[in-house]
Structures are given as structure tokens and as C-alpha cells.
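Subject: for your reference before the review

Hello V.,

The reviewers asked for a structural picture of the protein, and I figured it would be easier to keep everything in one thread rather than splitting it across files. Below is the amino acid sequence we used in the manuscript, unchanged from the supplementary table.
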Amino acid sequence: MKCGRCGREFDYTKQDFCGFCKTVHNKNGEAVRDIKGVLCYIAEKFGADTLLDRRRTDALIADFFPKESAVRRLAYVALYDGTAAKLIAVREKPFEVKCAVAARCIKSLRDEIGFKGKVAAEAVEAVGCAVGCEISFKKSEKISASETESRKNVTDAAEQYSLGRHFDRIHEYEKALYWFESAAMQDHGEAQYYVGVYRLEGRGGIQNVEQSREWFLRAMENGVAQAEYMVGYFFAEGIACEVNEDSAFEHFLNAAKKGCPDAANIVAMCYENGVHTEVNPELARKWRKVGGTLDEQSGTPMPKQAPTLPDPDDAPTATADDGEELYQSARRCLADKDAEGAAMFYKRAAELGHARSQCSYGKCLYTGQGVPKDTAEAFRWFKLAAEQNLNIAQYNLGVMYLKGVYVPKDADEAKKWFKLAAENGHTEAEKVLKKLK
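And here is what came back from the structure prediction:
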């Protein structure tokens, strides 16, 4: 059988794991790496009742799946919450009863432990499959803004990755690594790549090249071109693995075809010098000139394109709910006393036209909380929100005109904005108006 991870051949009749990378395989020859496969493997080998003992299950996962730390953590939390016991108790009950119990398990994992709806659903489904309790439910469940408003932890992988990039840019590497790892545990490809880089360089913590290679492999499986280039580099240099020139060149070429400029240059060099492959001056010249990708069907070079890793500062594609989601992300950052993260999310939501975010970002600029103080920009954002009839923004404009902050003192203009705010239900604006009269 061919290993689903490293590609090596092994005899499945003698052992169900690859002797080279220790990856366990099921009877269909598929590498077992997700929580459903892991728990089903444990239940099949040791009995479904084993899952009632979370500590023993955790130890078995550590023994048989030492590299699957994310799966191990997710399984432990799900079993700690009593999911297995609840589903075993109803596995002989009607289908509707089983689904109702599964839904309560999802709600518990989501509300009490903080999992996203989809992650909680996958965990419960995995436990149900392992204990023989057939269940079915939607996995696209989203937490409403009202539910997430008071939460202290950012649980969405994309938000965690964005925070990681933010702290990476300002060189706070320990915080960046924390958020990258949080997103990587939820199978976020770009975050996995960054964890690999951090582990390779020892940035933000302890250097560990074995862990670095593992994270690059995970990111490569999620389609990150730069990660596949790094996997090729590890094979070429024999870092945390045996030297394998064929695998190195294969990964370099695949990464180059996906648009990784570093990989394109390496491929050109390989063709020029006959390293890892045969000399081919024509292909070398094309790769060196294009520095991009080849069309997979025709084999001809395609125009140069940027690296595949996205920049979170790129202008987002606006949808109706984007502003509110980002606004709630900022609120969660504030609960964690992360003023810089909050300002970042407020700004993104403000740029999408979200009135409360425009006002909140204006306040950040006005007070210098999380961003450099800039009263001119604060005034601009307050006015944009005020023009959307947001009373607190109208009140803030009145204060700025009354005190002469950025703008000249103008009592009439101040009264105008206070009046608008009062008409929209701002009680403090009413009090100020009475005093001004």
C-alpha cells in the first residue's frame, strides 16, 4: 500500500501504519488524520466504550497518532464534555431523538467551550460515528452577533489569522504566534504556513524544525504554494527528513505552477544546472523570464502572478453582513483588552460603511487608543457616521465644534449637531442643548 502522506510503500497485511512517517491508514488505504477517522479507529480497535474514558482515549490517540495534536485536543474537549456518553445512551433510540441529543451536544460545545458551530458539529458527528449513533445536522451554523457580542475569545480562524498578521507586522512575535497557532489548529492553510516559518526560525518561541516541516506539510495539503516550496526545500537539504531529489523537484515545480516566485526561480536554476532534474536550457529560460506559472494543459508560461498568500490589508469584498461581523470582532478584542486589534477591525468595518464602526474608529483616533491620535481623521469618520443618522456620532461632532477640536469653535454648528443627536434619542445631547440655550 502507498502511504497517503509521504508516498512510501508499506505492507498493510503486516501493519496498518507507514513505517517511515508512522501515519495510520484505514482499510481503504486512506491516511487517518481527521477526528472522525481517529475516533473510529480507536473505537474499532479497543471498543466504543473506550471513548467514555477520555483520559485513556487521549493516551491512545497520543500513541497511535502522535502528530495529530489538533485532532487530539479537539477529541479530548469533546469527550470531556460528555458527548460520547450522551450519544451512546441514545444510539438505540429513534433517529429524531438521536439528532436532538446531538444538537444539544453541539450547543454545549459551542456555548460553554467556545467552539465555532461547524467545528462543534464535526466533533459531535465524529463521536457519533465512532459509537454507532447515526446523526445528521447542518454544519454551516453561524453564531449570531448578539450571541458573540460579549465573548472574550476570537474563535474564527480567519480573524485569528488576521490578528496574527497584525502582530507579525509590528514585530510582536509571541502574540503573532499565539494567533497563528489558534487559526492553524482550525486547519487554516496560511496560518499553518506561518507557524511553520516561526518554528523554523525560532521566532516567537522555541525553534523546532521537525514541527516546522509538519506545519508546512499541512499548509501544502491546504493548497498554500509557498508551503509546498518549503517542503521541497526540506527534501532538497535533508532537513528533518532524508534527502530526496525527485520529491524536492516535484514540490518545487508544483509550487511554481501555483504562482510561487521563489519556486519558479529554483525550477529555472534546476533546469539550468541539472540539479534534481535533467538540463533543459529552454525551460530554464522560460521559467527565469516568466517567474510565474505554466499552463497545466499546454505547458506554456503564463503571466507572472503574485504569491498566493493573501494580504489582510487588501480591500475586502463587501457583503451586507461584513461590517457587523467585523464590528463584533472588534468588540471581542476590546474584551480581551487588545486595543490595536479592535482598532484594526473597526477600521475595516468602517471602510465598508458600517456606521457604528465609523464612530468607534473615530473614537480610537480621537483618544489615541490602539492607533496614533489623529483628530482630523477622527472628525472625518464621525461625520461619515453622523451622515448615516447615528446619534452618538452627531453628538461627538457637536462636542468637537463646541470645544474647537480640529475645527474652529462654532456654537451654532455645535447646536445643530446636538439637536440632531437629541432628535435621534441621545439623552446627553438634550442636556447639553438646554445648557446652551
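For the response letter, the relevant points are probably these. Residues 153 and 332 are 6 Å apart (CA to CA). Residues 138-152, 292-321 have pLDDT under 50 and may be disordered.

Happy to draft the paragraph if you're swamped.

O.
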